[in-house]
Design brief:
Blueprint (H helix, E strand, L loop, with lengths): L5 E5 L3 E6 L6 E4 L1 E4 L7 E3 L13 E4 L1 E2 L2 E2 L2 H11 L13 E5 L6 H14 L4 E5 L1 H12 L11 E6 L4 E7 L2 E2 L5 E3 L3 H15 L7 H11 L6 H4 L6 H7 L1 E4 L10 E2 L14 E4 L2 H4 L17 H10 L6 H6 L1 E4 L8 H12 L8 E2 L7 H10 L4 H4 L1 E2 H7 L1 H6 L1
Parallel strand pairs: 1-9, 9-10, 11-18, 18-19
Antiparallel strand pairs: 1-2, 2-3, 4-5, 4-6, 7-8, 10-20, 11-12, 12-13, 12-14, 15-16, 15-17
Helix pairs in contact: 3-12, 4-5, 9-11
GO cellular component, one term: cytoskeleton
Organism: Drosophila lebanonensis (Fruit fly)
Keywords: Cytoplasm, Cytoskeleton, Nucleus
Length: about 400
């Protein structure tokens, strides 16, 4: 049964999905998209790769403010994922390991169970969070630790809608220590859209293109105040400023940073966006959400606050095992800045060590694979028979 278990890290932006006996998951956009260029067709998940012109792409998302609320959209995406065009196998009579947001609403959990057991006819279900799967994978990756029960760590999950700080003491989530910041990849992309639209040209409908710009040019400044002196002299400005060539979807499908002194032939006819301090002021929101009016602390302060809810005996080990996952953890300069800010907030006699895996987006999925192939996995699965007898209440009692 373990071989046929499906592992689905069901994120708000992408779903990471695959069979537990596969080496790696597919990463599929967890949404439906409509393009201006092809009005008669909707693109589900990774079908967007077939779209020739992704300008003014309209997204219909399954998640709203970080919670799975649009079930019709989610069913359409899951139907695609579990078809021949997706992972090529159905869910019927298979077990599934599936993730949900931290502190998920009971009504959302109930709807998920109902859909999986009644629409997809799964044999059993193991419901967890991506932070728990990341912690499980961290134990599996570590040579020193042999069991989850000995794990003290802090998971920072920089997601699409939220950033969560989740402390684990002796392998269990410290629920009163979980902290949520209402800033994630979506807020950063929206902020960059506003900056470019205000300063250069209107890109408010270009979420897809602006998201690519964010991925290609943004970085975290180690010293933000110093970085903001970029306009004091031409030398500093030249170090930061770039011209980003926008895609025209005929000769160029994805934008790129223009190399000074090495122009390409087609560049004369293409639109460019000059970018300077936008490159580091956008990711700065992860450290200072108040820059866009969100009255919350940044990641370093949230980590320290989470620490206060944990037993003091575990503080030393927690700070030595801070694991960062999620798509927005990939900005260059993110780790040094976070370490510097944390260092100034925690006692001098405690060391701070940050770990960011090579693939922070799929890291939790690999944890799900470890769970699904573990020896005692069957004991944790909530089966269809149990669901038929007890409904959602049986799962809560678990």
């Amino acid at each position: 049964m373990a071989n046929t278990t499906v592992v689905l890290d069901n994120g708000a932006y992408t779903a990471k999905v695959g069979l537990a006996n596969e080496d790696e998951p597919q990463v599929i956009p967890n949404c439906i998209m409509k393009a201006k260029s092809e009005r008669r067709r909707v693109f589900v998940g990774n079908q967007i790769d077939e779209c020739r012109d992704t300008s003014a792409l309209y997204y219909i998302l399954c998640f709203q403010r970080g919670y799975l609320l649009n079930w019709d959209t989610q069913k359409t995406v899951w139907d695609h994922i579990f078809s021949k065009d997706g992972i090529g196998c159905s869910l019927e009579n298979r077990s599934i390991v599936i993730t949900e947001p931290q502190m998920n609403f009971h009504s959302v959990q109930e709807a998920m169970l109902e859909m999986l057991f009644e629409e997809y006819r799964v044999a059993g279900l193991y419901k967890t969070t991506s932070a728990e799967l990341a912690a499980f994978n961290y134990v599996a990756d570590s040579e020193e630790r042999t069991t989850m029960q000995s794990l003290n760590c802090i998971i920072i999950d920089v997601g699409y809608s939220f950033t969560h700080v989740v402390p684990f003491v002796l392998g269990r989530r410290v629920l009163e220590g979980i902290r949520r910041i209402d800033v994630g990849g979506k807020a950063l992309t929206n902020h960059l859209k506003e900056l470019i639209s205000y300063r250069h040209l209107n890109v408010m409908d270009e979420s897809h293109v602006v998201n690519q710009i964010k991925e290609d040019v943004c970085f975290v400044a180690e010293d933000f105040k110093n970085a903001m002196r970029v306009h004091e002299c031409d030398k500093k400005r030249k170090e930061i400023a770039v011209d980003y060539v926008l895609p025209d979807f005929t000769t160029c499908k994805r934008g790129y940073i223009r190399m000074p002194g090495q122009p390409r032939e087609e560049e004369e006819h293409q639109q460019m966006v000059p970018l300077c301090n936008e490159r580091f002021t956008v990711p700065e929101l992860l450290f200072n959400p108040s820059d866009i009016g969100i009255q919350q602390v940044g990641i370093p302060e949230a980590v320290v606050d989470a620490l206060k809810a944990c037993p003091w005996e575990a503080h030393r080990e927690l700070l030595l095992n801070i694991l960062i996952v999620g798509g927005s953890a990939q900005f260059p300069g993110f780790l040094p800045r976070l370490k510097r800010d944390l260092r100034s907030l925690v006692p001098d006699d405690l060391e701070v060590s940050l770990i960011c895996p090579e693939d922070p987006v799929r890291y939790a999925w690999y944890g799900g694979k470890e769970v699904a192939t573990s020896v005692n996995f069957e004991e944790f699965v909530y089966t269809r028979e149990e669901y038929d007898e007890y409904g959602i209440h049986g799962l809560h009692q678990r």
